[in-house]
Structures
1.
Amino acid sequence: MGEARILLRDAPVAAVGGAGEVERRLSFAELLWNDGFIRKAVIILFLAAVWEAYGVTLDNPLLFPTLHDTIATLYDRVKDGTIPMRAWASLKVLFMGYSAGIVLAAIFTILAISTRIGTDFLETVTAMFNPLPAIALLPLALIWFGLGNGSLVFVLIHSVLWPVALNTHSGFKSVSNTLRMVGRNYGLRGLPYVAKILIPAAFGSILTGLKIGWAFAWRTLIAAELVFGVSSGQGGLGWFIFENRNLLDIPAVFAGLLTVIIIGLFVENLIFRAIERNTVQKWGTQS
């Protein structure tokens, strides 16, 4: 036994640890695959290939155009300025409704964390109105605000307000008592306390609410424009899709849908991702 211990002690490190590598350089392919952007790009390319294959197999442009025909139509409509103009018309209304919804959500949430009646009010109205589809409010919006941007903004506020308020309030309630006590020990009260303690600590939940509110608002806007999208100029992307459906220009319909998807991907993976990278990831508050 003593001889075995001496042999082991005198053996080279490489011989003892030669059974497996402690550290290995990743290959170029592995480095690429570790990049989330590359993985998402592969998924998108796969879905695009499935789209093209199905369109070619079906061979009926009136039902399902190929990806090639859709991109060609999209290129033509971008070149003549139709889709950029329609997209901008939609985005302007979206910004108005989204901003107003965030402001109202902030007011409701501040009231909820300040008083018990504010909490009861937020929980009650959320339980009442959050399950109500925004598109169901279109008839009332038409009566109250007429055929214009006011009606669109109204339904967008409904889409944004409740998810943002719910997630923000939930995030505030999950802030640890230790952080709350630190803020109070520094003499923070009211809005400074909310801005310097609660918002940074709960920003992960707040950002989730903003993402959900954006998704709800974007799809609600397109659906609303399909019904009354001629309120400003020639309408937005939803009305563009509806018009071309009536004309049986199905590649143009798919070009409009593809534009909606591209804008959604851009906002989610570039804008919100940049905000997340510079806030919750940088601060180390991401769960």
2.
Amino acid sequence: MHSGAVNLLSRFAAIGMACVALAGCRPHDFPQFPANYREYAYVTNGASGTVSIFDVVNVGLDREISVGQNPVAVAASPTKNEVYVVNSGPMGGQGSISVIDATKNAISATIPVHRQPVSIDIDHDGKLAYVADYGSNMVSVIDVAARREIVTIGVGEKPKAARISADGKTLVVANSGGDSVTVVDAASQRVRTTFSGCPGASDVVILPDSSKALVSCAGGHQVMAIALALPDQPGRTALPDKLEAMLDVGHAPEHMALKPDGGETFVLNSLSNSVSEVYNTTDEVGSTYLIGNGPASGAVTSDNSMLYVANAHSQYVTLYSIDDGKRAGSVHVGDGPSAMAFSKAGHLLFVVDTGTGDVSVIRTSTRSLFALLPAGRGPNAIAVKGFNVK
């Protein structure tokens, strides 16, 4: 047997024994869930055309189900027991959205969209989904209850991310091929403003108060800060969308992680192996820190104290203490960690290891590896959904 396979099997065996040893102390060290509580992590397997579904409560694989061809993104409804999978489809072909009924963990509908969809975002009341159709230069707006596309919005070339603001009024789209950002009025579904000068526009975050968007320009070394339009109100004049600043960060800022309180955004500079901290209220870059080899995904704890970074060109997740302003260690996971999601209680962090085709489970209280679970081929994205059954 190949030595790498032996090492991987040894890791699985060692972690399995650790899980057994820890099982006895679970009542004291894990949240106590009611009997009718369910929580699952959904991982898209791009090369398998499947989704691996992990039981968060019992920390194990629940099942693997078939979806469409080349699933690349996934999102959970904030109001319904549903999960939406973006199937990019064959090269140059039509994509689709698979709807998973989380109570049964089975496909309940498939919604056709356009060429090569790559991302999805859901509005705060769970009624509309926004899908970036990379190959069609548009955004599909989906009525999730009716299971159909209701309108398409023409945006820039090769849209990579489309994010809806918390107030539901503004959609911000990063156009990676057009080096631009499109701002859409969500009510009228019409383009409000277009900003150029963002090479390889890649990721979007919108502050919790819906006042500002930040867009990473992955083809360069900057982040675009945009003040979003304010409507006319008594005592306040209406303000249009406005480019506030172009912020210098590291090279190739592919992705960003927003603190839950909206105070800072952490920019992951994939070619600089660093993270830049942006102060959102002042549009200033505080510091840039070396973090790991190829930072690809970031997640901030609910108490705003700790940033976890998955380094795609390594086997490590790095921890950064926000309050202390320094690295706080690392956790050895599988090869090519590329996406992450916390459990709802925050006691576990699920890490998608694209290279080894597995999911590492980090126990946040001890900042250590708790379990290593098998996924499908080419896992690439993750979403978590928790709910009570009746």
3.
Amino acid sequence: MRRPTIADLAKTAGVSVATVDRVLSGRLKVREETSRKVFDAAEKIGFHGTNLIRQRLFAELPEYRLGFILRKERHTFYQSFAAELEHAVHGLRDYRIRLDVRFAQTSDPAEMVDLLNGFSGKVHAIGATGPDHHDVTSVITALKEKGIPTFALLSDFAQGVREAYIGTNNIKVGRTAAWMISRFSPRPGKVLLFLGGHRFQGHALRETGFRSYMREYAPQFEVMDALVNLETRGLTYEALLGALARHDDMVGVYCAGGGMEGAIAALEEEGASRGIVCLVNELTPDSRKALLDGTVTAVLHTPLRELCTDLISTMISTVEHGMAETPGQRFLPPQIWISENL
């Protein structure tokens, strides 16, 4: 396949070759509207000089550096999260945004502290997902004093200090999961929850919402003690196999955090004939396949595109206008996926 030429770019943009040459060279001023047309066309056809056009077009725009801490770099969900951040920035026309995305490898608060400290003096604002811990709160307080706001994503932390929480309402997510299991299960019985860790406030709130719904509306179901799986496949797999062997009356499983791959594998191996209702969070290739083959009943998914668009806009506004006097929160409704609406 041949590489697009300047003539191809001019034709796609609906301008003359001379105009494209002026945009590329920067020797003569070109109207911003025309430059944007050429830039959009360059992106569309994959023109080799797209980055040069971007630099000339956005050279005088304000530039902000935004840092992000996500988890598990090789996990599909967090890869999608990083890609949606790039997508949100790519759509901006009035700013130059540089992203610095880093990934935590563990749930250890000390790692979160190190990652946060690593952004000090290097970014204008931070968005992070991670555990709630007093050491994390301390470093976020120090960053705030330096004028760097921190936004909690997916699971809240450092309330009263962080700038805002952006994600789903985890109490309602937990209640929704309980409603589904109580309605979809063909009979009453025991239900098992998996939590990523005790320091993830989002997981604790999902458990709280789940249990409160069951106590009020479905007391015939017994919610067993939640198991901590550290969001790992192996621990979830072994723990669920053991629970299935011990409890013939188990009717439901809810993975409130990561590690759903292990739950799926265990149910495929031992639970296929028992009609167990299984709910997980986040639509990935694994959960999609499990939905289609009936191993998973439903997926509660974070609307990443909406979250990232809202987040980037809010971060820029905070940098430009200052931090809020009262830290807030922004709830996004989860997407509910079943086999029939994939």
4.
Amino acid sequence: MNKEIQNSPRYLALSTLDKVLQRGSYSNLQLNETLRHSELQDADKRLVTTLVYGVLQHKLTLEYWLAPLVRKEPQSWVKTLFLMSFYQYRYLDRVPDWAVTDEAIKIAKTRGNIGTRKFVTGVLHTFLRQGPRSIEEVTDPIERLSIQWSLPQWLVGELITQYGQPAVEQIGQAINEPAHMSLRVNLALTTVDEVIQQLAEEGITVRPSEVAAEGLVVEKGKVLSSQAFQKGLVTVQDESAMLAVETLQLASDDQVLDACAAPGGKTGQIAAELTGRGHVTAMDIHAHKVKLIERNVARLHLADRVSAEQLDARQVDQKFADQSFDKILVDAPCSGMGLLRRKPEIRYDKSLKDSQSLHQIQLAILNAMAPKLKKGGIMVYSTCTILQQENEQTVVAFLKAHPEFRLLKTQTKRAIKNGRPEKTLTILPSDFGSDGFFIGTLQRIE
């Protein structure tokens, strides 16, 4: 193989995409693996990242454009090369078409044979000559939205039913925009203002989050190599996710259970507020994830406030007596449909049946947790999905089975969406540019 081509950003992006699409690899993990072993400059690393996430975000649209140009399904990597090229033609204005075409032909020649090169050349030239076929040719409204926003039809139908078509249009646009990095300030060690200053001294520009009181949005700079990160003054966490802990109404001496805790972001956030005799018990079903929790809270210098346990949250009765905790956080397993900006490939792997099955698991976890909460205590239920069967419907089913609980209105420090009529809080990806998230606040009254 031509080593220059093999080590080029587009070739590395193609290899990464092919592993994600064909092997089911997670995009973020596969991309990190690719970049870690590359010798690319920062600008080229950004191009690889843009290509990987861009193709995954727009996959159904790109496939719709490709379909009339090929008689049969190409080899997986050739198809991915077409999708990647189409994405650059239509979505990357600063990249000239000739450069995209030239490099795609070189990759086809290097990875394939003369026939592959000719095939790729012909399809790309036809696409540039004819342009993409119009989505308006699709008459079915759900299919059209599916192609336009690259969302499976079942998901489009669910979201329209639950939120209405105008909201789905906004969600579709939001999830296909680049994700930004956000940080949570470790208030056990520093303040928001001090961190902003220290990051600025390291050449990192941030702005305060409009969503979370402890949150910062990164505008420029390498946070993970900064002293502020290395010293545990900040940790990477989405703005929406920070709100679950804000809602717990923590007191410094609280005994807290974080029921589904890995990788430990919310565990660390809870621990930072337990300045008295408080303690947080963090559970996860997997042993390796328990170690991850321990590493994360150690970096934040909060290990003395945390106990990490390997346990299925549905089996909590094996370990803890009833009324052991003042507060419980159930950040439940979910379909992750609020994370489509960061993990675009999951939209293609999930089904409506998956979401319905998760509802049962979520309800089982809440049922198991209920007796462990002290009377008057608060249990926060949160997910990173926007599907109501995993959110409101789970809360309603729990309350129906547990008259000893009542639903409180979820309150955040920045009074997010306080004018809403419902007591639960749903943040859509289109609301603030953060992840989609749901929070329900439950209080045990007897």
